[in-house]
Amino acid sequence: MRSLGARLALAVLLAVLGALLLAPLRAAVSPGSAPTALAFDAAERARIGELGPWPPAVPRDASNRVSGHRSAIAFGEVLFHSARLSSVGGLRCASCHEPWRSFTDARALGLGAAQGGRNTMSLLNVGLQHEFGWDGANDSLWAQSIRPLLDPREMRMSPAQAAALLRDDPQLAALYQRAFGSAPSGDDDAVLADIGKALAAYEETLVSERTPFDAFRDAIASGDRIAAARYPIDAQRGLRVFAGAGQCVACHGGANFSDGRFHRSRIASMLPDGEPDSGRRAGAQHLLASRFNLLGRFNDDARRTTAAATRDAAADIARSGEFRTPSLRDVAATGPFMHDGSVANLCDAIAPHASMQASDPVELSLAQRRDVVAFLRSLSVEPQPPHVDAAVFRCR
Ligand code: HEC
Ligand code: HEC
User: Fold this and answer.
1) Residue range 99-128: average pLDDT?
2) Res. 28 pLDDT band, cuts 50 70 90
3) Which protein residue's CA is at the shortest distance from atom 6 of ligand 2?
4) Is the pTM here over 0.85, yes or no?
5) What is the CA radius of gyration of the chain?
6) Among the atoms of ligand 2, which is closest to the Cα of residue 266?
7) Long-range contact pairs involving 21-27 (C-beta distance under 8 Å, separation at least 24)
8) What angle do CA 212, 215, 221 make, to 5 degrees?
9) Cα of 220 to ligand 1 centre, how many Å?
10) 70-207+280-320 is a CATH 3.30.200.20 domain
11) How far is the CA of 33 from the centre of ligand 1 (A)?
């Protein structure tokens, strides 16, 4: 038998514990003390559900025989950080795709051996895309990864130089052997394609983290109102515009906030040679002419089912001025924005854009744009990434 004193002490302890456990719950659900969840209707909940779940399974690439292989991923990571793949002192993939800046460079335009004409894209979630670059100039991640090596404005290598490096450098040759099961061959283009394939295997592993939005999306899907109420109310209002009146999901839909397709941009830009950037038109022309496209001899998918988009690319030569919809995951960290980096402020990036769908133009009010910016910031782990100036998020 326990004494009365002991029983009293136990009761007090239980009461204190209970109060401690319930306090955060009450704060979350009581009106006024903390944000609550908006009442999203069934259609809205369905549209929100389509923006996840996250993280997704990144599919293996059938055109790349080392996609998903650990030894190739390790080799690709070494290549990604190696300055030896460049004829320009010190330049590496990671110089422009800086890991700590969400794999971009915070410049308007890429700067390698010379000034480029396009904004450096983030590499996060790139394994979910099917056509690469702002203009889809390549139909595989491995062919896109060769592009900067050969580009005279970027790393400025020849296929012979790159292949010789792999044959002659003992460390790189050993990593190649482990990843591909044989020593580099005498075929320069084949060795170059394999460099691209190891880089691609690594890049497929670059998946962005779960964000406050993902927690909210899952809470809506499971009907957990307490978890849903933790998501900031302005982000909830912004999400409602994004998935509703703003029609943003027409292009920025799905778990990666990108349809992977090309759309007319309202931004007309010039390339360094003074010619207008024709976007998808130039991309389709490059793709069809490339000996590294998926119709060529380096595609490891013998049946060429991966080359469907390549067969259709000729029709895209008519699509001048179109660019691929960028993913909006981690967009708070990846400015400046747009294919030419001409927009520094995230709120401005939404403004001209609102009327992009020419058939049914949408103009957002200042208050709506503020809310959409709050929503877009919830697509990052931190709404205020440490390397980004707060002015990027100001709406005027
Ligand atoms: C000089 C800066 C620079 C360097 C160095 C560089 N890139 Fe890029 N990267 C860019 C730019 C600019 C784009 C956009 C290209 C375009 O669309 O015209 C891009 C686009 C990409 C894309 C397309 C992403 C997508 O979503 O479609 C991939 C993949 C990529 N780079 C991988 C690499 C790899 C791998 C290396 C090293 C071998 C590399 N990059 C080196 C600037 C650079
Ligand atoms: C018709 C398709 C389409 C619609 C609708 C659309 N976008 Fe876009 N969005 C694009 C394309 C294409 C680009 C790239 C344009 C360029 O680079 O010139 C883009 C770029 C952006 C960017 C810059 C991202 C970056 O990394 O550079 C943001 C932010 C953005 N859109 C947000 C929105 C919001 C918010 C809405 C709804 C109000 C919206 N978009 C509606 C296709 C669309």
Assistant:
1) 95
2) very low
3) 248
4) yes
5) 25
6) 18
7) 25/226
8) 140
9) 36
10) no
11) 47
